[in-house]
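Example S7 (structure tokens).
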């Protein structure tokens, strides 16, 4: 397990170095309307892939930027977002990350979220807890939603009459405050270290959350699907909370919003 984690951290930091190198000197492309991608995404993923597959050539590698074809036989699969928070990155807002998760039989066993702008490396291995730059971290102990700082994110092109907007508006009246920071991976890392108390996202992809969900769990938090069923990486409608009490309250508010 420690060998996996060491390679994961090395790869995440290397990907982050690439992002810092390319800051302000990239060409912006578009994957879809309002969905930006830069050369930095591709170069970061290429570097991460080199490190991971050099260490573990028989593992699967699945990256956001269309890199890797899953096989039927591989026991381990690396799931990578080389730049989570591309819009922030493009605009010079220093809040973005590299996210790398290692799955064993579809269960996360290692996860790293690296914030190169702040040099913060959040890491977790199943059964070994979670750390920030090598120091143990724990989720907050907040139990009342009215005291909770909650975070969410929207997909590009979300509209005012969408389910996402309804959830956001309904949550406003129940928690202390809501933030929308632009990086799902960092949202989860911040829940894990106690900076935030709960997160939800209905349109995230597996590479956005593969590392972060393990961070939250290993820091003592709770993760589930938005309907309260066990979290499924292939359909990651994610709710992650610092405590079981907060988790149930967040689920209740979000589920009521979808019925209104």
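Recovered sequence:
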């Amino acid at each position: 397990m420690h060998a996996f984690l060491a390679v994961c951290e090395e790869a995440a930091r290397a990907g982050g170095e690439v992002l810092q190198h390319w800051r302000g000197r990239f060409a912006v492309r578009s994957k879809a309307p309002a969905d930006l991608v830069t050369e930095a995404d591709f170069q970061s993923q290429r570097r991460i892939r080199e490190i991971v597959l050099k260490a573990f050539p028989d593992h699967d590698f699945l990256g956001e930027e269309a890199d890797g074809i899953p096989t039927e036989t591989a026991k381990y699969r690396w799931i990578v977002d080389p730049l989570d928070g591309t819009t922030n990155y493009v605009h010079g807002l220093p809040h973005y990350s590299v996210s790398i998760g290692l799955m064993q039989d579809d269960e996360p066993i290692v996860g790293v979220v690296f914030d190169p702008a702040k040099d913060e490396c959040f890491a977790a291995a199943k059964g070994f807890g979670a750390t920030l730059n090598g120091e143990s971290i724990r989720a907050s102990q907040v139990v009342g939603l009215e005291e909770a700082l909650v975070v969410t994110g929207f997909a590009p092109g979300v509209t005012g009459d969408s389910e996402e907007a309804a959830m956001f508006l309904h949550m406003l009246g129940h928690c202390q405050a809501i933030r929308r920071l632009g990086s799902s991976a960092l949202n989860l890392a911040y829940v894990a270290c106690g900076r935030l108390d709960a997160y939800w996202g209905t349109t995230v992809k597996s590479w956005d959350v593969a590392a972060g969900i393990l961070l939250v769990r290993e820091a003592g938090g709770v993760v589930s699907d938005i309907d309260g069923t066990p979290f499924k990486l292939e359909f990651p409608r994610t709710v992650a909370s610092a405590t079981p009490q907060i988790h149930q309250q967040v689920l209740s508010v979000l589920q009521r919003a979808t019925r209104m």
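Notes on this example. The first helix runs from residue 2 to 22.
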